[in-house]
Amino acid sequence: MNLILIAVISLGAIALISAAILFVASKKFAVYEDPRIAKVGEVLPQANCGGCGYPGCSAFADACVKAETLEGKYCPVGGQSVMGQVASILGMDAEASDPMVAVVRCNGSCEHRPRLNTYDGPMSCAIAASLYGGETGCSYGCLGCGDCVEACQFDAIHMNPETGLPEVDEDKCTACNACVKACPKSIIELRAKGKKSRRVYVSCVNKDKGALTRKACDVGCIGCSKCVKACPYEAITVTSNLAYIDYNKCKSCRKCVEVCPQSTIIEVNFPPRKPKQEAVETAPVAEA
Amino acid sequence: MLKTFSIGGVHPQENKLSAHQPIVAADVPAKAIILLGQHIGAPAKPIVAKGDMVKVGTKIADANGFVSAAIHSSVSGKIAKIDSVIDASGYAKPAIFIDVEGDEWEESIDRDTTLIKECSLSSEEIVKKIADAGIVGLGGACFPTQVKLCPPPSFTAECLIINAVECEPYLTADHQLMLERAEEIMVGVSILMKAIKVNKAFIGIENNKPDAIELMTKVASTYAGISVVPLKVKYPQGGEKQLIDAIIARQVPSGALPIATGAVVQNVGTAFAVYEAVQKNKPLLERVITVTGKSLQKPSNFMARIGTPMSQLIDACGGLPEDTGKIIGGGPMMGKALVNTDVPTAKGSSGILIMNKKEAKRGEERNCIRCSKCVSVCPMGLEPFLLGALAENKDFERMEKERIMDCIECGSCQFTCPAYRPLLDYCRLGKSKVGAMIRARQAK
Fold first, then answer.
1. Contact B171, B254 (CB under 8 A)
2. A128–chain B nearest CA distance, Å
3. What CATH number should be reported for the domain whose range is B123-280?
4. Which of A146, A239, B98, B137 is geometrically suited to a Cys-Cys bond with B143, CB 3.0 to 4.6 A?
């Protein structure tokens, strides 16, 4: 009986002393962490993709809380709604930013771009690019080994076996930039998604002279500058035989699409064109 | 015991199918395409324009910078255009296109075949003549020769090593050149010795060419300071660092220039080109090329003008066999597969190898079984299995620490791997990524 009593009292005493030490230590050595960091962290998607430019979501939350304004800080995965929530937690204004999407600027499918040789090395674009120009006559185009597919954490980019080119699922794409970094040929670019997801872009990155490009691919940009002249908004420039549409200036009028002799300029998510062209084409048939 | 390098190495099947085939002068092509970037360093600057008439040996492009080389016309005719052409790697590269008319040579070139032994020029004059002739290392790396002959002032050359190893399987260009032009080569070697002011030269020849060793030893005995060193057959003995190790038993430190060992290495083909440039005023406009392959009708050695389309040389050997799987520019170990056969030959084209489908097929890649064969064969003492895994996982910082930049891309690791892992491809990827990282760091 006595033994049990001694044990209970002594252990109880040790517990009390330890509790006191821990209490003092926790007060004395406490590190103040802004509770808003945890709050911001909660609303972030926790994808840890690095698309914001910070190493993971918690680092981004920390940076947001410590920053004076939210200028230049944007979570591409969460988009405008998450940035709105972050802004309301921190009592700041979220920067208005257009949603972006990854765009594959090569249309050199098996049909458009004949294969001249066969690559039998490891299935990696990075390795293929370090060895040679590629299976076709175009040394700028997609190699088709799928480094971008491997890089995507959101299952938003897949190879289309028929065309041999990657395709982006716009609904899943968060514009995190991972595929852009993975592509050794710099074919993938982040572009503004556009109103109603409608956008126009040059689907080619070939900088060779027109004759060489035309030989290699049916739909390559030959740098003819017709689109530059057609554009009423000065949104298109041609440098080293390659046209580029500045998405900030483009108003999606689609005049360039009509004049492009190589069908290199592509429009997406527009309703099908009904007027003129079809009428002109069908009219003579009717007459005949 | 024959000499050889100290670590690693493999012994692939030799397959010297074209050995002892006399060197035949290839036909002058109807149209020559002369690339402007045929050497390591900046591409040459063209000094001719469309419509100009050129003769064989006319300088058509100037060296553009210190590490660069001049380029001369290998044919006579009219400049058709200066445009880009798809080269052996599939990339478009600038080149000069010449429509051939006749075969008229520059008057300054001595086309007489009599041997001229005496050379009264000074060291500087020799180097200048070599630079004017656009000579580059003909072993394959195409490093401008005049740069190698002028080492940085902190180093002094002690001896000259002539690389006549030809360790690549299939290739026989150097072997045949030695059998046919031994005297000229010796004069070339003496001129090179004079250029770098040394009195010792070693000619390294692998033991699988006993006739060349015998002939060269006999000829060398009449020249002061030149000795022939027979070497044990082992790949990659023709690597500069391996050859220095094999002959004078000194190792090039990691990251240092080979001149740190006091040796200047030149290829035997380069020595011959030096002879022609200095004694006969003939710039580098043709070279010996081996065209070979198991299914090829007539494997041959050609003396071909630079800028000859490879298809023409293949046709001269009986045409492309039906079961062709791969066409390789260079030897099977370090050569690169060609994207098409219309590509022109360049200063560095030592051979064209036609592999049949069975030979060309890569084995199916499997997991590393940690047998460490790659480690034991790596002539640079690296761990290729580790480098391969690191490249696969994109850990390029660690690759740099594991000395990926020491890799000489000899391919011994991939050759020996029983799991058919593409170790060389991974190492090349790592080298290009780490090289870019280092350049970015230096730019900061």
1. no
2. 9
3. 3.40.50.11540
4. B137
